[in-house]
Amino acid sequence: MREVDYNIIVDNVARLCMEANYYLGEDVIDGLKSSLKNEDSEIAKNIINQILRNAEIARDEKVPLCQDCGFTVVFLELGTEVRVKGSITEAINDGVRKGYTEGYLRKSILADPIRGGNTQDNTPAIIHTNFVPGDKIKITIAPKGGGSENMSAVKMGKPADGIEGIKDFVVEQVIRAKANPCPPIVVGVGIGGTFEYVTYLAKKALLRNIGERNPDPFYAEVEKELLERINKTGIGPMGLGGRTTALDVFIEVHPRHIASFPAAVNINCHSARHKSVII
Amino acid sequence: MPEEIKLTTPLSDQDIMKLKIGDRVLISGKILTGRDSAHKRLFELAEKGEPLPIEIKGQIIYYVGPAPAKPGKVIGSAGPTTSYRMDPYTPLLLKLGLKGMIGKGQRGPEVREAMKKFKAVYFAATGGAGALIAQCIKSARIVAYEDLGPEAIRELVVEDFPVIVANDVYGGDLYDAGIEKFRRD
């Protein structure tokens, strides 16, 4: 059994928290740049150029892209032939604490949902763990902003709704959200599984890079169709009108119960942040 | 594309009247910050007819909760937060002479009506452009409610803060107009 030091996890998580908040992914930058070609609204072009300029400033000055440095969502792929010396959960939270403090990132987490009290270090992280073969640990940090998270939804539909029902649900959700999730957005869609699992799928979908299609050609087509429909809504960058409402739509699916038809939409803002490391 | 309009605070009715939805504006001068908790406190004082800790006549309130400042910096990333959460408190502040608000996302009908009635405008800033906007902020100091931490009311001195007129005094709403113009059914 391979062993990994506690501090290696802490340091990597701290670094990823900072990097995810400072450096916008090249895929998002490319997506924004190519969206400029489709826009004929001067306001929309102006906003997209501001977002691109913002990414340059954040990168050069090592400051967060957005003041909302998010809830720290962690996807952990833990090899069954590796163990961390100490608690990996504590190591991840220590890493978040270090990253958000030393990186001058905003701390947005209230210790109690009703009675409040800022935890002052953005912990605890939300950690999704999967066990995989091998002796490696893959950690993905995906800070998630509140404005876009608030515009997400789950629907326990009827099997009779079919794929058309899901498409309508996704588009309606984007229209309902309008300017609030900071478009151009990225749309994560989960289909199947159970009530809690479908929302996890929608979140996981957001880890894909812009332009990366579902390997199943059926769902790849649905993604393309949904993107086209969403970009016909006219909502546009920051909801002020235009053709670029979404940069991409990603679908993740799972087998379902014969009686159930769950679907979930998780919306990400244009600050679609995620960084990974394999240890 | 028309030139950007340069505005310096405080704003007069004349400044406000010439603005139309879709205008790009560069704001300079002193502006105030405030979000959820500060608005609640201002509203409660105003409702009782008590004096506010800050002068809002002719002023602009920017809805923002900035990231911490790095050493040597005036402020951390400071983009707009979603405005509709301030809607319940806004009409009363407009009645007291507030002339402008900077935020993101559409306002409710009561706020839009109050902007027409009391001659005020709503400016949209680019959400998620916090690093870019921070560069326009030349100084920041807390002027009220220090206990609220990031939500305290600050006075910012800004230079050429880029915004777009989303609501004007004539009842125009760029969120509705923009979607109407670009929707393809």
UniProtKB/TrEMBL annotation, chain A:
InterPro entries: Class-I_Fumarase/Tartrate_DH, Fe-S_hydro-lyase_TtdA-typ_cat. It holds the Pfam family Fumerase. Belongs to the class-I fumarase family. It comes from the Bacteria. Keywords: 4Fe-4S, Iron, Iron-sulfur, Lyase, Metal-binding. This is Fumarate hydratase. The keyword Signal does not apply. The lineage of its organism: Bacteria, Bacteria division WOR-3. Residues 11-277 form the Fe-S hydro-lyase tartrate dehydratase alpha-type catalytic domain. One of its GO terms (molecular function) is lyase activity. The keyword Lyase applies.
TrEMBL record, chain B:
It comes from candidate division WOR-3 bacterium 4484_100. NCBIfam families: PRK06842.1 (NF005310), ttdB_fumA_fumB (TIGR00723). Pfam families: Fumerase_C (PF05683). This is Fumarate hydratase. Belongs to the class-I fumarase family. Keywords: Lyase. InterPro entries: Fe-S_hydro-lyase_TtdB-typ_cat, Fe-S_hydroAse_TtdB_cat_sf. GO terms for molecular function: hydro-lyase activity. It comes from the Bacteria. Residues 4-176 form the Fe-S hydro-lyase tartrate dehydratase beta-type catalytic domain.
